[in-house]
Write a structure and sequence with these properties.
Elements lengths: L1 H10 L1 H10 L10 E7 L2 H9 L9 H17 L5 H14 L5 E6 L5 H9 L3 E7 L2 H10 L4 E4 L12 E7 L8 H11 E14 L4 E7 L2 E9 H10 L2 E14 L2 E12 L3
Length: about 270
């Protein structure tokens, strides 16, 4: 059976590429995210409960920071880092002549986007929050001049309209109650909301995976794109721009990673 599948995939390279991207068929132990297993039915709820605190693992911050520090070093020397470039482009497109912008990143990890924005020369006052006490501790250590909080993305302890722009920093995919997290991002933003590095699927329902991130088992959600865009609209957000980091589509089905930039509507 495996030999037949290999022959089939080799005959249809586009199908092979689609499977590699959308199902993340990577060798165990290689890359940041590995060991993807698609989940369905009762398994989704059960594993979401079991792994809901996975991102709080004390080993994650140091492991992630090793990669981030290499990327930041390259970025300082003018290298193009796609995820950094897209985030900078998203914010720069909003600033215009509005002056200094107050920005909150939800799911900030160790706060490294504050450094990205500084390297890029963006005129922002940055603050961050994360679900993980270990990540926030590292953020405070690395950037003692900035403000960081331990917060749950689904129930933020900030006032309505507290920040000009709120960035959901590639954390929704790990949050089973992602609808509440989107609503909270919209509530705290006074003008703009950005959903960075959002994995979406095209022509398919939501996909749920169990995986390892930096060696730690966690859950990852890939959102049906039309439904996700409707969720943004239902949360009072108007889509301004979409930036695609990667996309693979074949016969109307596929997957992509996008950053969505929204304006909070007056209603």
């Amino acid at each position: 059976m495996k030999a037949q599948l290999r022959v089939l995939l080799n005959r249809f390279p586009r199908l092979k590429s689609l499977l590699k991207r959308c199902l993340h068929l990577v060798m165990p132990g290689r890359g940041v995210s590995t060991h993807y297993v698609e989940m369905a039915g009762d398994e989704v709820g059960r594993e979401s409960v079991r792994l809901r605190t996975a991102w709080k693992d004390d080993d994650l911050p140091v492991r992630q920071r090793e990669l981030v520090d290499r990327q930041l070093a390259e970025y300082r020397h003018g290298a193009a880092i796609a995820v950094f470039d897209v985030m900078v482009k998203s914010l720069r497109g909003l600033q215009g002549s509005a002056g200094r912008m107050r920005v909150l990143e939800v799911g900030c990890s160790s706060g490294y986007y504050s450094e990205v924005f500084k390297i890029a020369g963006l005129n922002v006052d940055y603050a961050g929050c994360d679900y993980s006490e270990a990540f926030v501790a590292l953020a405070r250590q690395r950037y003692p001049e900035l403000h960081f909080d331990v917060q749950d993305a689904t129930s933020l302890r900030y006032a309505d309209n507290a920040y000009d722009a709120v960035i959901s920093g590639c954390c929704l995919l790990h949050i089973p109650e992602y609808q509440a997290a989107v609503a909270e991002t919209a509530r705290v933003a006074s003008r703009y909301a950005i959903f960075h590095r959002t994995p979406v699927v095209l022509g398919q329902p939501n996909k749920y995976y169990r995986k390892k991130a930096y060696g730690v088992e966690t859950v990852e959600i890939h959102f049906n794109e039309p439904q996700f865009l409707q969720l943004l609209a239902d949360s009072g957000l108007d889509l301004l721009a979409t930036y695609t980091l990667d996309e693979t589509v074949s016969h109307g089905a596929g997957c992509a990673t996008r950053t969505y930039v929204c304006r909070k509507n007056a209603a």
